[in-house]
């Protein structure tokens, strides 16, 4: 579903290498957790996948569509939420969702059905008619999630989706992610919460200093040592 | 470092962007010429006003000397500067004391309320020197040199110049603080911003009209002064501090010194009152204002049905989004739309105010002369294009997206569709200007409707290349990193460049029209020629816009 071939990205005219020759494949029906210390290159990688950043080299394909050759086609298959979404503060929640539905060209009956579903789930019905300016961080996160999922994309790409969500919403989102993948779709998300990754992910990738240092199922990462926790593995792999 | 000193240093650093500037030039290696050019442009645009003001003060001084009241310029200047500071101070103080974003970080710090206010006050005060100095320096220098004052005069004036903003600012701050204790103005923040902006606009025009209507010769001024016996004491009755300042400077020895002490003492007293009051009420009003008010009206299924049924195509949806953000953001509304509507109205009013002047009467009569119609019509068209072209809507369109640019990059909409939506909004803004000017031409100048309509149509055709080129500028080099909406639109080079481009197009088309007019060609032919050129320019600029957008939207990173 997501196919990344040797992508690299550097900042400040090549002096800082944020992502270094990264290869990654995420399969259909898979929840993929992307872990790494602060500044390891998680967000940079995610931004390249969704087309916000242009890789210096390498290829990214979403369900067979190259994000550079056919960006519009690839973007239609993606639903993306950044770690702290900057939204149009002077639009109401309803206006924002309608805007997203319009640009993704979601027909009226489907948009109504999905918006009602998510507003209900995230308990946003009270706030939808207010300006986004008045929302809390968690509410902004939820409205961004709703906007990103409104076109029912095959691939969800979520940067730290649990941050700012209350326990109930986080739980519901995790259930959603599972259901989405069970239907043969894909979820790719980054997180610092290792318990979530441990419980939820089919496969995990760990990135450190721009390089992928480990990838596989939890068992594969443990190398047969069942007592080894993800925390220990993570600390070991990302040590200086 | 003591907490207050650290806080004050931080306030000044943030306010003047010192660290940000350092980073910009040392780490990011951005162009140094940009801010310098902007600064130079502002200075040059203000210079004529300053020259005019200085000339006026010189005339006033000459007249005052003849009337044996040379100190009159000091009284007028001190009064004028303090009133200006008071009016702008009200909005400024409200913004920095109650609406600024850093307050929620300051409240938990181990600072007393009066310390927080003290730091904020210092920043406002330093900024007010930019207003008070141009008003006060010319008259103080003119009086000092003109009456050959000694060293003491210059020392006293230094003290007064430094102290001048204190008085009106403390009054403004105390008023605002008491007001905020009673009503939560935060709720009307956007409205207040619009009111403040319009006030500034009208004040600017008012000053212009005042300067134009002032008696020109010093004899006239002299007779004016003589008519009001004891001008200084007349003002003094209504606004004593201006007189204290005047006497502090104009009188020697003990009386002069006494008035200086009085002025400074009142400043200190008021400042003390402000500090005492801030300890008492500042946090109470501030914290009460922090509560966010929301309607809390739950959507029913029927409402969702109704609200989410309207489906529109992506281009219109994006244009709608941009229009809403434009209208709902005070600073964008003022600089983008208010100008095209209020600008022509003010311009026409200024003409009409002088309607009784003999020259103007002759001019108005000529407007109905059929043989002059072509000239009037072309002049009207130029006015339409000038007023509609002087807006920043298209030239800051992409810049205004700022940190929300990730949405633009994420959505599956082509670059061509993106700029098409921006073209729609830009053309709408221009249409507002064309229509306002057109209506004024019909209503106030009584020009024939059909002619004005024709001019309006040509005006809209010419707007296309103007808007497309302004947009091209912004797409080519958008300013996406900004901290306040003000920065996005006012400290954006593209805005000024866009206006320049619009004027350039106006000059080219105007030259064509004038040449054809001199050749004796009929007006209809001229309008057609102007339209044809505009259409060609429009097509070329659209093609350029699309190809640049295709490249830039791909390269742009969020």
Notes on the structure:
With 240 residues, chain A is α/β, with parallel strands linked by helices. Chain A has nine helices and ten strands. The model of chain A has no long low-confidence stretch (mean pLDDT 91). Chain B contains 24 helices and no strands. Chain B has helices at 3-16, 18-26, 33-66, 72-99, 103-106, 113-146, 151-163, 166-182, 189-213, 218-227, 231-238, 240-250, 253-290, 301-307, 314-328, 330-353, 358-367, 373-389, 405-410, 415-443, 449-476, 485-490, 493-518, 523-555. In chain B, helix 15 packs across helix 20. Chain B is globular. The relative contact order of chain B is 0.07. The interface between A and B is large, with 46 and 43 residues.
SSE ordering of chain B:
HHHHHHHHHHHHHHHHHHHHHHHH
Mean pLDDT of chain B: 83
The low-pLDDT segments of chain A are none
Count of distinct strands of chain B? 0
Q: What is the ordering of alpha helices and beta strands of chain A? A: EEEHEEHEHHHEHEHEEHH
Which descriptor suits the 3D outline of chain B? globular
Subunit organisation of the chains: heterodimer
The parts of chain B where pLDDT drops under 50 for at least 5 residues are none
Give the amount of beta strand of chain B, in percent.
under 5%
Count every helix of chain B, treating DSSP H or I runs of 4 or more residues as helices: 24
Strand order, sheet with most strands of chain A: 6-7-8-3-9-10
Beta-strand content of chain A: 25-35%
Biggest interface found: A-B, 46 and 43 residues
Class derived from helix and strand content of chain A: alpha/beta
Distance between the termini of chain A: 33 Å
């Amino acid at each position: 579903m997501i196919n990344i071939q040797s992508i690299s990205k550097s900042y400040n005219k090549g002096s800082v290498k944020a992502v270094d020759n990264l290869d990654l494949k995420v399969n259909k029906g898979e929840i993929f957790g992307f872990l790494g210390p602060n500044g390891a290159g998680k967000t940079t990688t995610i931004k390249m996948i969704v087309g916000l950043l242009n890789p210096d080299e390498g290829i990214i394909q979403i369900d067979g569509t190259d994000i550079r050759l056919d960006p519009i086609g690839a973007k239609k298959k993606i639903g993306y939420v950044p770690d702290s979404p900057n939204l149009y503060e002077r639009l109401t929640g309803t206006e924002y969702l309608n805007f997203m539905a319009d640009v993704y060209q979601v027909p009226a009956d489907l948009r109504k059905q999905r918006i009602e579903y998510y507003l209900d789930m995230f308990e946003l019905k009270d706030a939808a008619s207010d300006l986004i300016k008045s929302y809390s961080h968690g509410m902004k996160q939820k409205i961004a999630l709703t906007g990103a999922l409104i076109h029912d994309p095959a691939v969800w790409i979520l940067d730290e989706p649990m941050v700012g969500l209350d326990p109930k919403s986080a739980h519901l989102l995790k259930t959603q992610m599972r259901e989405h993948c069970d239907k043969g779709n894909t979820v790719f998300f980054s997180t610092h919460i290792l318990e979530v990754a441990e419980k939820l992910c089919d496969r995990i990738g760990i990135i450190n200093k721009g390089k992928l240092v480990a990838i596989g199922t939890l068992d594969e990462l443990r190398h047969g040592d069942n007592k080894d926790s993800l925390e220990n593995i993570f600390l070991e792999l990302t040590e200086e | 470092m003591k907490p207050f000193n650290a806080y004050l240093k931080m306030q000044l650093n943030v306010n003047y962007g010192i660290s940000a500037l350092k980073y910009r030039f040392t780490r990011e290696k951005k162009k140094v010429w940009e801010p310098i050019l902007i600064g130079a442009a502002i200075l040059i645009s203000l210079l004529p006003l300053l020259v005019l003001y200085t000339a006026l003060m010189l005339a006033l001084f000459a007249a005052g000397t003849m009337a044996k009241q040379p100190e009159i310029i000091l009284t007028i200047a001190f009064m004028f500067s303090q009133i200006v500071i008071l009016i702008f101070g009200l909005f400024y103080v409200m913004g920095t004391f109650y609406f600024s974003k850093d307050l929620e970080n300051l409240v938990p710090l181990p600072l007393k309320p009066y310390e927080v206010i003290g730091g904020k006050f210092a920043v406002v005060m330093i900024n007010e020197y930019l207003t008070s100095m141009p008003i006060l320096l010319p008259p103080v220098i003119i009086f000092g040199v003109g009456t050959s004052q000694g060293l003491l005069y210059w020392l006293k004036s230094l003290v007064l110049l430094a102290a001048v903003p204190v008085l009106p600012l403390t009054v403004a701050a105390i008023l605002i603080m008491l007001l905020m204790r009673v009503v939560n103005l935060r709720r009307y923040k956007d409205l207040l911003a619009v009111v403040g902006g319009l006030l500034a606009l009208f004040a600017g025009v008012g000053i212009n009209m005042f300067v134009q209507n002032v008696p020109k010769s010093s004899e006239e001024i002299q007779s004016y002064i003589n008519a009001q016996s004891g001008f200084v004491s007349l003002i003094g009755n209504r606004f004593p501090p201006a007189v204290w300042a005047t006497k502090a400077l104009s009188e020697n020895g003990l009386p002069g010194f006494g008035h200086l002490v009085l002025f400074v003492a009142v400043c200190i007293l008021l400042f003390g009152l402000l500090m005492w009051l801030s300890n008492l009420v500042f946090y109470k009003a501030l914290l009460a204002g922090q509560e966010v008010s929301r309607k809390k009206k739950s959507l029913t299924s029927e409402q969702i049905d109704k609200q989410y049924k309207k489906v529109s195509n992506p281009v219109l949806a994006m244009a709608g989004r941009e229009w809403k953000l434009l209208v709902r953001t005070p600073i964008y509304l003022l600089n983008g739309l208010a100008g095209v509507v209020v600008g022509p109205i003010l311009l026409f009013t200024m003409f009409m105010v002088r309607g009784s002047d003999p020259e103007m009467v002759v001019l108005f009569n000529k407007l109905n002369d059929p043989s002059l119609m072509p000239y009037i019509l072309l002049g009207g068209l130029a006015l339409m294009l000038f007023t509609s072209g002087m807006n920043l809507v298209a030239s800051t369109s992409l810049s205004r997206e700022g940190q929300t640019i990730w949405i633009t990059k994420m959505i599956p909409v082509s670059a061509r569709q993106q700029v098409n939506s921006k073209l729609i909004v830009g053309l709408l803004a221009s249409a507002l200007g064309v229509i306002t000017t057109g209506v004024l031409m019909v209503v106030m100048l009584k020009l024939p409707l059909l002619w004005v309509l024709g001019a309006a149509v040509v005006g809209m055709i010419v707007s296309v290349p103007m808007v497309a080129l302004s947009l091209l500028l912004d797409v080519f080099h958008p300013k996406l990193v900004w901290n306040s909406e003000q920065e996005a639109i006012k400290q954006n080079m593209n805005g000024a460049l866009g206006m320049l481009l619009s004027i350039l197009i106006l000059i080219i088309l105007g030259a064509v029209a004038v040449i054809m007019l001199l050749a004796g060609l009929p007006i209809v032919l001229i309008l057609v020629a102007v339209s044809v050129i505009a259409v060609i320019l429009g097509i070329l600029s659209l093609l350029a816009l699309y190809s640049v957008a295709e490249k830039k939207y791909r390269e742009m990173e969020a």
